[in-house]
UniProtKB/TrEMBL annotation:
The keyword Cell division does not apply. The chain crosses the membrane at residues 337-359. Keywords: EGF-like domain, Membrane, Transmembrane, Transmembrane helix. InterPro entries: EGF (IPR000742), MEGF10/SREC1/2-like (IPR042635). Residues 86-122, 142-176, 178-207, 246-277, 288-325 form the EGF-like domain. One of its GO terms (molecular function) is scavenger receptor activity. It comes from Lottia gigantea (Giant owl limpet). This is EGF-like domain-containing protein.
């Protein structure tokens, strides 16, 4: 066992000058044991001292400062035997290897090397302590980052509770519980109170599916977690908060504003208005009602898409064609008179011939 030796002298201090310290593991505390011992330390001081503190051997580098028996002697070659005067000999065990800053007379360390605790710093700190532990009881100064679901991997060293909340998908004091299905982030105290749902779901527990007519991300409809409103818009052909209303079939490309259903790309041919619910005014037809029509019989309305007049009623006098835009040309008067005279003569001739035939019979 390694030692620290202290010698205390109250009177006749000069009698101890030049003393030798011998150590031995075997033998007895007698002259034979003394002769078998190994010299470890020899006093070479030139002044007398009241207290000698010896911490290591000074006679050889190969001699260890430990042993079972300690022998102290003083030799005086010039004067023969010399009286040895000691008041007290204190032999201290060497401070533990994990002591920092020395130890007291009982071997209790002043401080411990990081990773150990106890009076003699001979007990390892608990596993996963971060930065060592408290010397007197072994409590961790802090814990290593864990893997149970704590945010930042940090938990209370006493009870394991997560100080900064849980990572996504975890709940509970120690973040060991899973959030409810379809829930990305939930309350640490209640795994059914979700603050973020997977795309496609909403509600406090993320159990309600978003309307399928909501615009999608990664093939899942997206809606507000609180009320289910479609937060990034509707698919083509639908509008309103939850996209459950159809855009007007008169909307061009079937697209309309989510807020009020107004047609965003205009109307199909023959329709006008924000929601394309109105027909073209009389006399107009086609896209944006930009083409004109008319001359339908008795001023009837032409077709709002093609501009054609009613087939059964036809056109006003003097007009012809599907849209009654073609003007009928008037015949020349002289031709009309000649035609009338010719017809009359033909009739007269036929009558005369008929009379002649009757008379001859």
């Amino acid at each position: 066992m390694q030692h620290k030796l202290s010698y205390v002298i109250f009177t006749d201090q000069e009698r101890l000058q030049g003393f030798e310290l011998r150590l031995s593991f075997n033998g007895r505390c007698n002259i034979d044991g003394y002769k078998q011992s190994t010299i470890c330390y020899k006093d070479t001081s030139t002044t007398i001292q009241d207290i000698y503190n010896i911490n290591s051997c000074n006679q050889s580098q190969n001699i260890q400062f430990n042993g079972r028996y300690v022998y102290i002697s003083v030799e005086n070659p010039n004067q023969g035997d010399k009286p040895l005067t000691l008041c007290e000999v204190e032999i201290f065990e060497k401070c533990g290897s994990n002591c920092v800053g020395g130890c007291d007379s009982s071997g209790n360390c002043n401080n411990c090397t990081s990773g150990y605790y106890g009076n003699k710093c001979d007990t390892p700190c608990p596993t996963n302590c971060n930065g060592g532990c408290i010397q007197n009881n072994g409590d961790c100064e802090a814990c290593e980052k864990g893997s149970t679901g704590c945010n930042n991997g940090t938990c209370n060293r006493n009870d394991g509770s997560c100080i900064y909340g849980c990572i996504s998908g975890k709940s509970g004091p120690t973040c060991t519980n899973d959030c409810s299905k379809n829930c990305i982030i939930c309350s640490q105290n209640d795994n059914k109170k979700c603050t973020q749902c997977h795309d496609g779901y909403y509600g406090q527990s993320c159990k309600q599916p978003c309307n399928k007519t909501c615009q999608s991300q990664d093939n899942n409809p997206v809606c507000n977690i609180t009320n289910g409103y479609c937060s990034i818009g509707c698919i083509k052909g639908y509008y309103d908060d939850v996209c459950n209303k159809n855009c007007s079939s008169n909307c061009f490309k079937k697209t309309c504003l989510q807020t009020n259903g107004s047609c965003t790309d205009g109307c199909v041919a023959g329709k006008i208005g924000d929601k394309c619910a109105e027909d073209c005014p009389n006399g107009t037809y086609g896209l944006r009602c930009s083409s004109t029509c008319g001359n339908c019989y008795n001023q009837t309305i032409c077709h709002i898409v093609t501009g054609a007049c009613d087939l059964e009623l036809g056109c006003e006098a003097g007009f012809q064609g599907p849209t009654c835009k073609e003007v009928v040309e008037k015949a020349d008067n002289s031709i009309t008179i000649i035609s009338a005279v010719t017809v009359t003569l033909v009739v007269v001739i036929v009558v005369v011939i008929g009379l002649v035939i009757i008379i001859r019979r």
